[in-house]
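Sorry to interrupt, but I need a hand with the structure work. Please put the record directly below this note.
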Amino acid sequence: MAGDCSFSPIRTARSDSGHSGCGARVLLALLLGALFLCSALPTTAQLPGKKPESFEPVVPDFSAPSADWWTGWPDASTEEKKQWLDTLDEAWRDWRVTLPDNEDLQERADEVERSLKGIRVTWDKFGEYQKVAVLPEVEFPRNPSVLAWAESDAAVARGRQRLVSLQLEVRQVDDTLGQSLSRLRQRVVVLREAGSEGLDRQLAALSLLAAQLNQINIIEQRSALEEQMRVWQEQIDLGEAQLARMLNEIRYSAEAGEKLQESLNGKSDKIEQLTAKRAELRSSTLQSAEPDVNMQRDLQLMELETRLLENYLQKRKDELLQSINRVLNPELPDHQLVMDRDLLETARNLIDSTSRELNIRQRQVVAWTDDESEDMSRWWRYFERIDSALGRAADLIDDVVRYEAAQLKVYRERQGWWATVRERSGHFFNMAYTRWRGLADHELFTIAESPITLRGIARIIFVLVIAWLISGLVRRFLNRLVRKKHASEQSMYNLGRVLHYSIIGIALMVALVMLGLDASKLALVAGALSVGIGFGMQAIFSNFISGLILLFEQPLRVGDLVELESGVFGRIRDINVRSTRVTTRDNIDILVPNTEFVAGRVINHTLDDPVRRIHVSFNVAYGSDPDLVREAATEAAEQVNITHTDWKRKTEVWLMEFGDYALKFKLVVWVNSNMVSPLDDPYALYNLELLREFNDRGIEIPFPQRDLHLRSWDVPVKMARRSGD
């Protein structure tokens, strides 16, 4: 047996093949297998025969716990967590005996002990939760009737509500977890600042330890809720799959049809009774001077409205089930779908309006009545009944939406795809609108106790955009009047600016009201705004008022040629709220504050009459013929296209002065300012023509020169000769 192998499969292979060297082959196979296993296992896996690493619970120093001793808790397994908690309990009991008999220290120690017990309470509590099924005793039979499918659908709907409540609880635990972590960080800072020893440090250490254990407890609650939510979600998904299967296998039932018809008749009778009762209450009861009587009447009407809404929605559910059952009957002709978008939209609007009115009534009752009085209990019973009815109505709306989807599916299978295109499109649109409605009505923040939602923000943006478009259309209409010469450009410009400010101001007021600002409080807002204007916005507001003065008083108009006290010279292009745009001759746009036009000195060359007179100075040499100079200057003025002449405004040439080296003249000419290009200088135009005429006529333009005359003085010489004689 020396040649036999100890590993039977290989031994069999060897014996079958008849080859020798079994031991070498076995050793090679074992080595290759070990290498394969090592390459396949993850880096954290334990090799066979190696002792697994044991879990070592971390026990902090209770007198000075570190900030991160507990951070490995979320990664530990369930058994490791139990072992860790047992170790902590035992170590804590041993250490607590050493605590001094101080009331504050013992109180903090009790808090730590409650935190330790709280972790076990959490485990026990959620251990009981795991025994609760989200779909208890729900049956999903084969080939069901429409009533059996509806019963199973109602059970799954209740399961969804339980799952939603669990999701809300998870979000609440998340908020608590964040707050606990913030407190934990504060306790760490307090411990660091408490010093190295003393009572304050011991108190800070125990407070930090209690906060850390409380954080572990909240982590366990979050983990247990997540596990429970995962299990419930799986059951809900399974239930929905079973509902889809039942809907595919649903069969016609005459018995179900009879029951549904009886239920429909009962709902119709109930609706008639409630409608008559509501009409009687509205007609027989008048408004009283007693607020309690009016409050009771209003609450009774609200309760009747909600009960009517419930019955209408329940009737619609029965109608949908009856429609599904009838289309399954092969003996009956095709039936029309039961679809009505108005009912769901009306129901949603009624729920919203009733909820808002109910909140108002609750605040009124709280303001009127003592919290512990019998009247408060009586009113609160009304509120609870109405609120419960509103909740049931909201659930019925969801049921109707699901039943409509089921009806569309059954009709499509029975009557074909094209027969339900229009209804299915409307249904999908309604579902999309419902989801948008839920998103749009989500509260982002509040202003003056009014919730601000995406829908409200969208409405505000819509109002502002519409106001801007209306303002643009009005200005385009006014510009069209100007182009057709039915109105002056300046009047239409001023009217357009005023209307623009008015429309935008009204839109802003509407937006403020939509944000929840009470219109009666706008006076307070205006007062506060005036204070802000008086301090920080004085210059802006003064420019705004100055702009309005310019628009209404019209000392300046668009297109006027103006010269400011600061030296700015140009044409006005725009008169805006804060500033006026002036274009200079160099094609430079200058934004001048409106206050400079109101408070400063402004020369308007085109205010009433665009024709103005300018004085162009020039010199000619001595010896020039004055008549020829006058004729040449007049001819030069006529060559300039901006020159204006009429029977009382004529071009003149004045001899002003006999200078040191020249005769000084002035060309006094009238010009039309509206014909002056914004980029031209009228003086330059006239000087150019004067130079051309003087050159053509041979008139000399002098330059500065001096004549030096030398005169001999011989009187002193003669006197000197006489004295010599």
Observations:
- The two ends are 179 Å apart (CA to CA).
- The CA atoms of residues 285 and 456 lie 37 Å apart.
- The chain has a mean pLDDT of 78.
- Residues 254-424 form one domain.
